[in-house]
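Dear support,

We are seeing what looks like truncated structure output for some complexes. This example has two components. We would appreciate it if you could run it in full and send us the complete token output so we can diff it against ours.
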Amino acid sequence: MSTFSDTISRAVTTAKGASGSGRPARHKLLLHAVLLVCAIGMALPFAWMLFSSFKPLGEIFMQPPKLFPQDWNQQGYRTALGGADFVRGFWNSTYIALTVTAVSLLTSAMAAYAFARIDFWGRRWLFMVFLATMMVPGQLTIIPLYIIMGWLGWVDTHAAIIVPPALFNAFGVFLLRQYVKGIPVELEEAAQLDGAGRVRRFVTIILPLLRTPLTALGIFTFLAQWNNFFYPLIFLNSSDKFTLPLLVNQFMGQYTSDWPTLMAATTLLAAPMLIVFAFAQRQIVEGIALSGSKS
Amino acid sequence: MAVSSAGSRARAQLTSAEGDVHADRRRRRRRGGDTAAGYLFLAPQLLGLVVFMVGPLLFALVLAFYHWDGFGTRSFAGLSNFAEIMSSPRIQCSAVNTVWFTVLQVPGLMLTGLFFALLMQRAGKLTPVYRLAFFAPVITSSVAVAAIWLWLFNPDISPVSNALHGIGLPAPNWLQDARFIIPAFAIVGIWQGLGYQLVMFMAGLQSIDRSYLEAALLDGCSEWQKLRHVTIPLLSPTILFLSITSIIGSFQVFDYIYVFFGDGAPDSARTIVYEVVQIAFGDFNFGEASALAFLLFLALLAVTGCQLAVQKRWVHYTE
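Here is the complete output from our reference environment:
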């Protein structure tokens, strides 16, 4: 999967060769200057978040505002960690996102296999239905979904935010179907001659060959679930069930002008995904680009 | 989307044509078994489709024509929910806000995304470093993003206001001044969404066959001509995809507003989805909220339909 950087370096070498003389050196410098300034500009809000979380309250109101704290102070983190159960929120977010990702990858791959390879009655129009639902905005179905969850007794339980996305992912089915169609049928036919049934062929041939799109879709699903705000906001009421984004949102209502504490809470919310991203940048970026471009 | 599916479809047809007649007959005889197998593999997603999508969708459609708070008795409302929405000045204002936000955010996102993608394409080894900065907001929770900007928009403590004053510009009180609330949301939205556009544009640029650009170079085209007449037409499928998804996303903006204002957003900050949530889960007026969500859905269908209808005039597919 190094195509990304390969192509870029190829593009760079040809650009160098094509433009000939020494002129591009200055252009190159300008290019990097512009990109560097803008990249720093993009990162600055994070820097303010991080450094302000270590300031004592008095320094927040200093004029002119300074990026670095003069007196490094952990009071913000102490108040934040004392005011809400962040560990619990983190655990809730993580296990919910992991469960949804694992189950939805499996069910989507199964459905994708059925649509791509099995000739069953109603296949074509059912697939059209799956495609059409991608246009439906979540806000339209959330109201009946809330009522249905009430009937099921799932309001204010994690089931309400785990089961629907785990069992229904039209986008995932669509994406994976494209890839299953790209796998040569002969591979399966050979296994069939050896007496392998559908389930066995799916598990031993199809799933391993879907590793790339499954990874991409998995990253995409995990991030979307971990960061999701709308569904947990509607379905969860008790703070011990809150996911991390909900917890921080609630926190903001309670500590409106205690900025170091708020920024400490925000740092605790943003940091896990930023750390994961720093280590797996290429996989995440390519995963999201792949998920997007195939649709 | 059309390109890859057409390719795999052609391949699938080829292989089935090659397959011998026996296999074909065998397949037909086993069709009953295949239907069972098909639904077995489909079962979990089919259950989800029915219970969590089609069911709620039909339910929402019915609700839009009823008065109901979710608990008491339901009464048929005819079109009165829709009439209520159409005559409400607050909802009209929210609709205008939503469109205004979209008008600001979508071109802002796409132009900056394309601009930086073109630059990054030439950035060589440093690309991952820049990309880290541009993409980090994409993977950050919108609650964290809103919390950071709540601070950056606060005129008393914000380094942004301070910097604006420093260069002699007036710093608006972003979230208190009705004229600046929606542009403030757009700034946050662009900051958070730019990295995604950038990555998608870079993937699009990567897939352009370089022989086109070389031909343009041999013909003595300037950089601008190359961009205008070669790169942009060849990127048009990416542009179409991103314009459709960004407009849909912009129409559904909610998180920032809720984090900034909670349940008490001023009229100038409210959007359609914010109204839907307030009407449904604040007033427990499920009928009117469903009617409004349904109108939003129709608006999205209409806008996407228009985009797909005019795409033939400007979108070029290479295969």
